[in-house]
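Entry, Tuesday afternoon. Goal for today is a structural model of the target with pyridoxal-5'-phosphate bound, before we commit to ordering more compound. Inputs were pasted exactly as handed over by J.K., no edits. I checked the ligand SMILES twice against the vendor sheet because last time a stereocentre got dropped in transcription.
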Amino acid sequence: MTQKKLPDNLHRDTLAVRVALDPSQYGENSEALYLTSGFLQPDAETSARRFAGTEDGYTYGRTSNPTVTSFERRLAALEGTEAAIGASTGMGAILMMCMGLLKAGDHVICSRSMFGSTIALIGREFGKFGVETTFVSQTDVAEWKAALRPTTKLLFAETPTNPLTEVCDIAALASLAHGVGALLAVDNCFCSPALQRPTELGADLVIHSGTKYLDGQGRVMAGAICGPAKLIADVFAPIVRTAGMTLSPFNAWVVLKGLETLSIRMQAQSANALAVARWLETQPKVARVYYPGLASHAQHDLAMHQQSGQGGAVLSFDLHGEGADAARANAFHVINSTRVVSIATNLGDTKTIITHPGTTSHGRLTEDQRRAAGISQALIRLAVGLDHIEDIKADLARGLDSLT
Ligand SMILES: Cc1ncc(COP(=O)(O)O)c(C=O)c1O
C-alpha cells in the first residue's frame, strides 16, 4: 500500500513516529517486521540485476532488509543526515567505520576517555594492520591540534564520555579535521539525536550504539552510522555485505519503535538525572558529582550549548575514602544497599542502572591507567531511568547514610 506523501519540514517528533518504508499491501499502521533471510526474485534476470546493483530490490538478509531500511531512514531523519546504515552492535558500527575509512599508514586521533572497547579496537586491533592512533585529552583542543599529521584521516570523539561525562567541543574538532582533509566522527550514544545532532555542528559521521537510548528499554543490541548518502552507499554498505556486521531485522524493528519515544524519554530521564545530581551534591558522603547539567561541571556551558540545554541521563559520583580497598568497599556498600535500581553495566534503559566502573567497564585497566583516566575505586555511575526520583534518592540514601 502506498503511504500518503509526508509534507516537507515536519517536526522531528513527527518524523520519529512517521518515517519508514511504505506499509505492505495489508496497510499495517505499525511498521511490519520482515523476518526472512532471503527474498523471492520474480525471475533470474531481475535477480542478476539486483545482485549487480543496477536495479533496486532486496536479495539476501546479510545485505539489506526492509525493516532495517525503515530503521535507517528514521534514524537519519532524526540525526539530520542524508542516510544511515544499521550494524549488529555499536562496536559493529565502529568496526565498519574503521574498515571503510582506514588503511595501513593512516593516522587517527581519539580522545583518551573514549569507551574502552573503542580504544582497544582502534588502538590495538587496527594497530596490527598498520593504522596509527594518537590518544589525546577529551577537552583540550590544543592537544588534538598538536596531534594532527599529514596522514591523519579520522578524528573520533565521544561526548559526553563514559563514566566521567567530559564534554568535547564538536565544532572546534570539526574545523581541525577539515583543515587537514580528515573526517570527524562523533559517538552520539549518550545524548542521542534527541539532545545533540553532531552534524549540525560540523561532524561528518555519527556513530550509535542502538543498544542504549535508541532502544531505550534494554532489550536488544544494535548500532548504526549516520552520514552522507554517497559514503554510506559506496563505502559502508559494501562492508556490511562482505563482513556481515548486519543488524538483525527483529532488533531493527525494536529500535525503530524505540525511536518513537526517544525524545520524551530523553527529556524525562535528563530531568530525573539533574534532580538526582543536585541531590547528590548535597550529600555529605559524596565527594564529587560529574554531570554536565550541573553548574559545577567543567564544561557546563559548552554542554548546554551542544546538548539542547540538557545534561543527559548519565551521571557519576565519587565517595570519600582513603586507599583503593576502602574506597571500593564504600562504593560496593552503596551499590549493594540498593533495592530498586538495577546493578548492571548497560545504560540507556528506562530502569535506573548503577555500576562500579572500576571493576566492570574499566576493570581490565591497571590501577595506574585507571587513575590517569580519573576513575577511582570510589566512583559510582548511575544511568538514570524513569523510576521516580524520590525512590532513586531513597535507594541511594540507604547506602550513603549507613556508610561509616
Ligand atoms: C559510548 C559507547 N559507544 C559504543 C558502545 C558500544 O555499543 P554496543 O555495546 O552496542 O556494541 C558503548 C557501549 O557501552 C558505549 O557506551
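DSSP finds 15 helices and twelve strands in the chain.
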